[in-house]
Design goal:
single chain; Rossmann fold; 6-stranded antiparallel beta barrel
Length: 293
Amino acid sequence: MPNFSTLLTKDNITAVAIGHFDGVHRGHKQLLKQLGEYGGLVVIDKNKANITPKLKRAEYSSYPCFLYDFESIKGLGGDEFIALLKRDFKNLQKIVVGFDFRFGRNRAWDKHDLRRIFDGEVIVVDEVCFDGMGVHSSAIREYIKQGEIYKANRLLGREYSIEGRVIKGQGIGSRELVPTLNLDIKSYLLPREGVYATRTRIDYKTYGSVTFIGNRVSTDGNFSVETHVLNENIEGASDVAVCFIKRLRDNRKFESLGELKEQIGTDIKQAMEFVGVCDLYVVGDTATQRSEP
């Protein structure tokens, strides 16, 4: 783990892991284990990360992240890229990469070239498998898009979380249904439309909640992300994080607000069954590493 008593900068970091690190999932965590206390992440940023955008990767990895814009380095040869890292990290002694790591112009260099070019220690981490499948950001994104939150969370090793700013909503919820926080979400990948059992984090406190994503087909038809905090009356919140636990149902149209309110009551009862225990911290970690033949 990093040395929290020392400010880690490019000048004192001795080990870096290189990759995209979107999600900072179970596979990435195997790379992090190799870094030691003076480690950091070299993040090749294509501005496409939507599980952990930008520096959110530092929060989930507990290591400082140094973003390298892909467009500015994609023309470098493999030796030029490593020379850049050695100039930026003057005490670099170790580089950690994944089994399928490629780098340099047209991705023409691989882990074998890295060992040849870099004069320090190179650690290549084998593919990590969990629940019988390889752990990759692309698979996690697909599960999130399909609403398969439990499967996405298993590969992540945590609950998938999005963050947003509270904005003004219709006002119907507080008057005739249940009060909700309407969220403006940017940069994050949203799960498939529907209703989810969630946890909502506000000012370092976490509450059980029910979250709706989709077009409000029973009212104004507009798209929204709304979270109802269970058994609490939350006012004045500005920034909110929502952690997804389980998809409860599809988005569907109701003929009256009365019918919608009745269904919301059912959603709340269902959500209460899931928001109390974080399953991912209860089960053992059965991740394995699959070596290349």
